[in-house]
């Protein structure tokens, strides 16, 4: 008795444990940290995982410390206070965002030391400088002062001395606590509005490239104090951190030092010059001129501004040919696997770099209605006459990116258990998708990974394994290991349409990976994902494979098929008691054979789905199924899965026992010229009098060699006048429709003979047919 009770309890415990699914959830900053996305494009806050907004009209000082750059003397430095001639200990108070704190020069210092210099960490398009002075108590504004700015271009190449330009000087003693300064160029800049941009072109033309701001007191004043320096700039430059985001820059050979145009340094430049290679220039495709560059932003952005900053070269011979053009792509590809570029701007009447007799313009700002851009392609209009330096390229966005793609790590479902393969049941998630936004989630799975090694020297540079092995230990650097999907992985699945949807990739598998796209059609809105979970359990069988025979069959002829499957269970697998075959065809005479006996029930669902149920679980016995069907689609695939009634909703896919073991081929199909087959009209005489006998006509036919057919079926009278159109639906590979004897207005037609016209609407092959039908009462 005790043994029996123990056995029952053990069996119940095993059943409960087997039925319990495990869940892997991503819900907080730590769990999301295992995912990968372009740097700076996604943030995690209380609303979940969401896109990062790229701002317009920013105070560039607020995040100056987030940027760094190389100097001649101090190495790499962060933005912030560059130099304070007096009281440097309190200089940071002038850029801390708090108007109640301030930098007050030491009254004992000479007025020549009453100087404060701020480094923004990168060049920005400054539209306004604001100086906020302290007032109250023993503090007051500077009375006489000057303001200078520099874009980062050095006055002496070997020193950290920059070319400053005065943009403001008091003419009367100042008493204001807020001084606004427009640091715009006089005649060096061009601002163009392309089409209906929505920008105020006159307002946007007042700007200047600024990285350093110098405030100089021209006279001492008791209690003089500067509370805040603010630099109102155009926005966040999308080109910043380009490589960290996965973006890149490529160029033709006549654009040298191209990386210098996106390095955030106005003292460096790319050289666009045809001089050294005039004899080598060719004509034709714009890439063949070798005077082009292409920018990959690393993600799809909404972009509404481009800035090109050229060097004003003051010597004879400098020129820009006849101009240039810029094209843009949102990321689509052509048949040649190149970005599908479309024209963005055309600059054919340049006035910069004309030599020292006429300085002209060198700063070009283009404003346009926000559009999706991932790739930007710049090229010359004429290959001759170019000798120019492009110092910096900037792009700006009006808000959130258009699309950012994230990938999970390779998730090892069997890592913590002895069972290496797991059955993934479903993917669930919760998030917010405001109007114009969406979340796109896909999956893929596999049983193993490809391991790749990168050998490096002491400087971190990659070298071959052979060279690395030949070196002494002192010369060897680290070995990096990377993992990638191998041939055991399937392709990315279709997108998941709802939370809790069954897993769409192959399962059971050892590994899986998820891909998530955050998409916004409105730059002012972002989707957010609060959490995502993967529900998985032990598989019904460690492995199960199958095949269908024959696999090369005649077109649209009834064929006897045999389906065979072989389970390979592990010791504790529960096995299966249900077999499902989705054929996509009308099936007849289904039956099954197995050593465990015949199935308890055989069902045909929707004419094309076979479901076999056995009274007890099958673990190691093979199963053979017989059925008849007509195949009219090339490369039709049988979808096969096993289930267990103890685990509702769990269907384990049956793998191919050999290559294309579930695919049916029609070798004679290409020879077919008549694309309509098996046309039936039943009954030939219709009596729509509501007596339940022959009240409607059933029209059916098969469309060969046509994917997603959309036939036109029309009923006319003998004079050719249209009576009504018939809607056709696909059922198990057969197109079906019904006519109830009514015309388009819903009235019964008169007795007589009517014509049925069928037209597949394809451009080749015989695609039309005509039949007649009689209506009587």
The end-to-end distance, rounded to whole angstroms, is: 77 Å
Instruction: Please give the largest β-sheet.
Output: 10 strands, mixed
Q: Kindly provide the radius of gyration, computed on alpha-carbon positions and rounded to a whole number of angstroms.
A: 37 Å
Shape: elongated
How many extended strands?
56
What does it look like?
A hairpin with a 4-residue loop joins β10 and β11 (161-162). This protein has four helices and 56 strands. Mean pLDDT is 88; it is low at 1-19, 277-283 and 352-359. The chain has six domains: 22-50 and 410-448 and 489-537; 58-235, Galactose-binding domain-like (Jelly Rolls, Sandwich); 248-399, Jelly Rolls (Sandwich); 455-485, no CATH class; 543-667, Immunoglobulin-like (Sandwich), CATH 2.60.40; 676-775, Immunoglobulin-like, CATH 2.60.40. The chain has 777 residues and is mainly beta. The strands form twelve sheets. Strands 14, 17, 18, 19, 20, 21, 22, 23, 24 and 25 form a ten-stranded mixed beta sheet that branches. Strands 4, 7, 8, 9, 12, 13, 15 and 16 form an eight-stranded antiparallel beta sheet that branches. The longest helix is centred in the N-terminal third of the chain and has 18 residues, at 2-19.
In brief:
This protein has 4 helices and 56 strands. The protein has 777 residues and is mainly β.
Produce the secondary structure layout.
Blueprint: H1 2-19, E1 22-26, H2 29-32, E2 42-45, E3 48-51, E4 56-59, E5 68-70, E6 76-78, E7 80-84, E8 115-133, E9 145-150, E10 154-156, E11 161-162, E12 165-169, E13 178-181, E14 189-194, H3 201-204, E15 208-217, E16 226-235, E17 248-251, E18 255-256, E19 270-273, E20 292-310, E21 319-320, E22 324-329, E23 342-347, E24 363-380, E25 386-396, E26 403-407, E27 411-412, E28 423-432, E29 437-446, E30 449-457, E31 462-463, H4 465-470, E32 476-485, E33 501-502, E34 511-520, E35 528-537, E36 543-549, E37 559-568, E38 576-582, E39 587-594, E40 601-605, E41 609-618, E42 623-629, E43 636-637, E44 639-643, E45 651-653, E46 655-656, E47 663-664, E48 676-682, E49 685-686, E50 697-703, E51 712-716, E52 722-726, E53 729-731, E54 734-739, E55 752-759, E56 768-775
Parallel strand pairs: 14-24, 36-46, 49-56
Antiparallel strand pairs: 1-35, 2-3, 3-35, 4-16, 5-6, 7-8, 8-13, 8-15, 8-16, 9-12, 9-15, 10-11, 17-20, 18-19, 19-25, 20-24, 20-25, 21-25, 22-23, 22-24, 26-34, 27-34, 28-33, 28-35, 29-34, 30-31, 30-32, 36-37, 37-42, 38-41, 38-44, 39-42, 40-41, 43-47, 44-45, 48-50, 50-54, 51-52, 51-55, 53-54, ...
């Amino acid at each position: 008795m005790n043994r029996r009770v123990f056995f029952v309890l053990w069996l119940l415990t095993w059943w409960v444990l087997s039925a319990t699914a495990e869940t892997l959830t991503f819900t907080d900053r730590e769990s999301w940290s295992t995912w990968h996305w372009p740097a700076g494009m996604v943030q995690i806050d209380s609303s979940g995982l969401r896109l990062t907004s790229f701002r317009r009209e920013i105070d560039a000082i607020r995040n100056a410390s987030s940027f760094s750059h190389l100097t001649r003397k101090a190495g790499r430095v962060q933005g912030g206070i560059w130099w304070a001639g007096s009281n440097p200990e309190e200089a940071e108070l002038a850029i801390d965002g708090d108007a109640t704190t301030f930098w007050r020069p030491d009254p004992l210092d000479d007025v020549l030391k009453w100087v404060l210099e701020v480094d923004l960490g990168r060049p920005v398009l400054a539209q306004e400088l604001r100086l906020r002075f302290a007032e109250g108590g023993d503090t007051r504004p500077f009375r006489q002062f000057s303001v200078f700015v520099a874009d980062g271009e050095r006055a002496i190449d070997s020193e950290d001395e920059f070319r400053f330009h005065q943009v403001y000087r008091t003419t009367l003693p100042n008493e204001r606590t807020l001084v606004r300064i427009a640091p715009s160029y006089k005649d060096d800049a061009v601002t163009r509005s392309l089409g209906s941009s929505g920008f105020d072109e006159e307002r946007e033309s007042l700007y200047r490239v600024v990285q350093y701001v110098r405030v100089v007191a021209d006279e001492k004043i008791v209690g003089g104090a500067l509370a805040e320096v603010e630099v109102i700039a155009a926005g966040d430059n999308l080109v910043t951190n380009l490589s960290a985001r996965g973006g890149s820059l490529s160029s033709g050979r006549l654009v040298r030092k191209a990386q210098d145009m996106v390095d955030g340094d106005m003292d460096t430049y790319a050289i666009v010059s045809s001089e050294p290679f005039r004899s080598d220039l060719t004509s034709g495709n714009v890439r063949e001129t070798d005077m082009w560059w292409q920018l990959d932003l690393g993600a799809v952005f909404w972009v509404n501004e481009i800035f090109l900053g050229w060097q004003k070269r003051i010597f004879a011979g400098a020129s820009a040919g006849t101009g240039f053009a810029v094209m843009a792509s949102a990321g689509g590809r052509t048949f040649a696997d190149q970005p599908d570029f479309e024209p963005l701007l055309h600059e054919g009447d340049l006035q910069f770099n004309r030599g020292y007799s006429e300085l002209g313009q060198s700063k070009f700002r283009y404003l346009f209605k926000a559009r999706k851009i991932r790739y930007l392609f710049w090229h010359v209009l004429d290959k001759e006459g170019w000798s120019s330096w492009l110092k910096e390229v900037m792009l700006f966005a009006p808000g959130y990116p258009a699309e950012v793609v994230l990938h999970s790590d390779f998730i090892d479902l069997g890592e913590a258990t002895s069972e290496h393969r797991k059955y993934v049941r479903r993917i669930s998630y919760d998030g917010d998708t405001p109007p114009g936004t969406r979340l796109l989630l896909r999956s893929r799975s596999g049983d193993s990974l490809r391991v790749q090694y990168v050998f490096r020297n002491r400087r971190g540079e990659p070298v071959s394994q052979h060279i690395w092995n030949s070196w002494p230990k002192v010369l060897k650097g680290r070995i990096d290991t990377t993992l990638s999907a191998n041939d055991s992985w399937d392709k990315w699945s279709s997108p998941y349409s709802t939370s809790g949807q069954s897993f769409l990739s192959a399962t059971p598998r050892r590994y899986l990976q998820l891909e998530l796209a955050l998409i916004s059609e409105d730059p002012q809105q972002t989707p957010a994902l609060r959490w995502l979970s993967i529900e998985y359990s032990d598989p019904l069988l460690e492995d199960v494979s199958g095949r269908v025979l024959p696999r090369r069959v005649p077109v649209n002829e009834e064929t006897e098929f045999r389906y065979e499957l072989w389970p390979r269970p592990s010791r504790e697998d529960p096995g299966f008691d249900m077999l499902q075959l989705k054929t996509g065809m009308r099936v007849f005479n289904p039956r099954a054979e197995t050593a465990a006996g015949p199935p308890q029930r055989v069902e045909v669902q929707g004419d094309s789905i076979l479901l076999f149920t056995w009274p007890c679980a099958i673990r190691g016995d093979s199963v053979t199924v017989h059925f008849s069907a007509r195949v009219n689609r090339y490369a039709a695939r049988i979808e096969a899965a096993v289930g267990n009634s103890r685990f509702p909703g769990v269907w384990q896919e049956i793998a191919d026992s050999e290559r294309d073991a579930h695919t049916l081929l029609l070798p004679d199909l290409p020879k077919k010229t008549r694309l309509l087959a098996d046309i039936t009209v039943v009954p030939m005489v219709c009596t729509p009098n509501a007596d339940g006998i022959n009240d409607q006509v059933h029209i059916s036919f098969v469309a060969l060699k046509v994917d997603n057919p959309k036939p036109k079926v029309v009923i006319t009278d003998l004079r050719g006048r249209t009576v009504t159109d018939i809607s056709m639906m696909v059922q198990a590979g057969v197109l079906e429709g019904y006519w109830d004897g009514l015309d388009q207005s819903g009235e019964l037609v008169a007795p007589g003979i009517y014509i049925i016209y069928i037209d597949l609407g394809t451009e080749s092959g015989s695609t039309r047919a005509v039949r007649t039908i009689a209506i009587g009462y």
